[in-house]
Each structure stands twice: as C-alpha cells, then as structure tokens.
C-alpha cells in the first residue's frame, strides 16, 4: 500500500487506512503542534506580565543558586550581597529565625515575608506564594 485507503462501513461511515510511517508522522506533527501551542501560551502570558509591569522573572544568579539546591530566600539574600546578620538587622529579625526560614525549619508570616522582601528590594510575590517551603506562609 502506498497511500491512504478509504473504506466505507455498512453504516456509511468512512474510515481511512494508512501506512504506519504516515500515521507516525501525523502523530509526531500533532505533538509538535501541541508543544508549539503551549510555548505560544507561555510567551503570551509573559508578554502580558511585562506589559502590565509584572516582571516575575528571577535573576539568573538566583535561578542558578536554586538549581544548586539553595532555598529561594537564601539565594535572594546572597544575590543582594547580604549576610544573614545583615538582613536580620535590616528586617528587625533574629539571625537564628532567618536561618530557620532559609532552611525551611520555620515558615514566615505574610507580614514577615513582606518585611524581608522590602529589605531585599524585591517583589513580595517572589517570597509569598512562591511554592518554596522555606519561604511559605
């Protein structure tokens, strides 16, 4: 068989029979189209965020630290060039408490995370609802 073959059922429904290679090519093309559609949706979402002034992207240095296994809070603090003591003093927190937040042993309140975000000069959304258990509410 070299191309598709159309078969009509007794009920009038038309069926198409095609070589396996053609079927595999169609499945691959459909998967690629779905992936392209998902990429376009992500692009549209990011473009809308930027247009609205909501740039939620983390700096590359922070992303790299996260990939190395550091917590989000620790990565942000180090990105800003602060020690735990520096940030603790600025945010009026104990250094041990900040250490517990970074290690995920404690969870900061919304108010505390807002205060930390302000002292780090970052968007509070980076710490609140970020999905990082070391910074959760």
TrEMBL record:
<dbReference type="InterPro" id="IPR001387">
    <property type="entry name" value="Cro/C1-type_HTH"/>
</dbReference>
<dbReference type="Pfam" id="PF01381">
    <property type="entry name" value="HTH_3"/>
</dbReference>
<protein>
    <submittedName>
        <fullName>Transcriptional regulator, XRE family</fullName>
    </submittedName>
</protein>
<dbReference type="InterPro" id="IPR010982">
    <property type="entry name" value="Lambda_DNA-bd_dom_sf"/>
</dbReference>
<dbReference type="GO" id="GO:0003677">
    <property type="term" value="F:DNA binding"/>
</dbReference>
<feature type="domain" description="HTH cro/C1-type">
    <location>
        <begin position="73"/>
        <end position="127"/>
    </location>
</feature>
């Amino acid at each position: 068989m070299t191309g598709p073959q159309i078969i009509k059922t007794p009920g009038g429904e038309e069926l198409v029979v095609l070589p396996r290679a053609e079927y595999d090519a169609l499945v691959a093309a459909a998967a690629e189209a779905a992936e392209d559609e998902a990429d376009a949706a992500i692009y549209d979402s990011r473009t809308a965020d930027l247009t609205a002034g909501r740039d939620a992207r983390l700096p590359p240095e922070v992303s790299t630290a996260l990939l190395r296994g550091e917590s989000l809070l620790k990565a942000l603090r180090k990105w800003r060039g602060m020690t735990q003591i520096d940030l603790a003093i600025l945010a009026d927190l104990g250094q041990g408490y900040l250490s517990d937040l970074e290690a995920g042993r404690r969870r900061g309140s919304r108010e505390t995370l807002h205060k930390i975000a302000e002292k780090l000069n970052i968007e509070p959304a980076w710490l609140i609802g970020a999905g990082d258990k070391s910074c959760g509410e």
